[in-house]
Design a protein that fits this description.
The chain is about 40% helix and about 15% strand. It is α+β, with helices and mostly antiparallel strands. Bound molecules: dinuclear copper ion.
Length: about 375
Amino acid sequence: MTKKKLKQIFFPLFNSLFFIFFISCGFGFDSPMSTFDAQGPVAQLQKDLFLFVFWLAVVVFFLVEGAILYASYRYRQKDEKLPVQIHGNAKLELMWTILPSIIIVIIAVPTVMGIWKTQVMPDEEKSIIVDSIGHQWWFEFRYPEEEIVTANELHIPENKDVIVNIESQDVIHSFWIPKIAGKIDMVPNHQNKLWIKADSPGIYYGQCAEFCGIAHALMKFRVVVHTKEDFEEWKNDMRTPPAALNPGSEEDEGRKLFIGNCSMCHTHDSYKKAAYHKEIQNQSNRWEEWKKDKEYSAIVSAPNLTHFGNRLTIGAGLKENNLETLSNWIENPDNIKIGTRMKNHAAIYNSDDQFLTSNEIDQIAKYLLSLKPDRVSVTTYTNK
Ligand code: CUA
């Protein structure tokens, strides 16, 4: 083979390999879901392990491919004679058994150490405990010690160990915050635990990472990492009622419509004392109701909407939370996310005499956006 021919083969091969590498990295090492931009000790450990195995594999790849190419060229057919047969060569057999075994051990040691390190939960006394429950297709977050419940937005302080107790109410989901830790299955009737810790304040992206039905790819959440002080403020916020509404205002009309049409499934007042245990009971009752009649049940499990006006997104992390997106969502959830139980079960979409006018929809949206603690609110953070 001439040098020119070799060049013709090697350059495209080399270029395509690099192209595939960058495609598989999603081009962006700092995109919102990139595991290459680790922002906490758990994600860092997982990233370091990945890169260690990756570069080891790159070395093995070039050695093996190099040997194949060298051998194909060096020992190419020159005449009709059979080459020397190496079947049963003890030296070679030993070499290609022992060498891969050593490589496997080199990979296994840090992997097993990493598993041990991430599976042992930090001291509960010194950690924040959060229960996260997967639902088709949204995330519920409960803080048992603080008796706070919320949905689709996980709030934690910076630089503090957090133990997330992970379960599902319906099917298997998976809990994943790429920049902070990944990922663990959310299984019905079985609790998994995940240790997470974030280095610095900001808004992080979470995503369901296990196929769980039609809206799986649209099952997201946000993680708001606060400074220590802001996290205390947030907890106080969650116990503070919203300001009273002016009777007759658009928001107040919306409140009446919400109570009449939405409040069987959506709780909006978990700032009240003792509301926490009631909400857990309600969510379980809703589930039982839906199980009894999956097609026509008027009650289904639904996200808690306490202080919804402060939420960053709607539809479980899908759109920015504002009057336009929210009205659009209430008008027809299919506009944003297909398959929701809200669309399939709520009377306002399914019963001829209960459809809402666009004015009524706007009033409900304005009411929901008014649901904010009646006190000076916490800092806003930027996306990470
Ligand atoms: Cu939940 Cu995928």
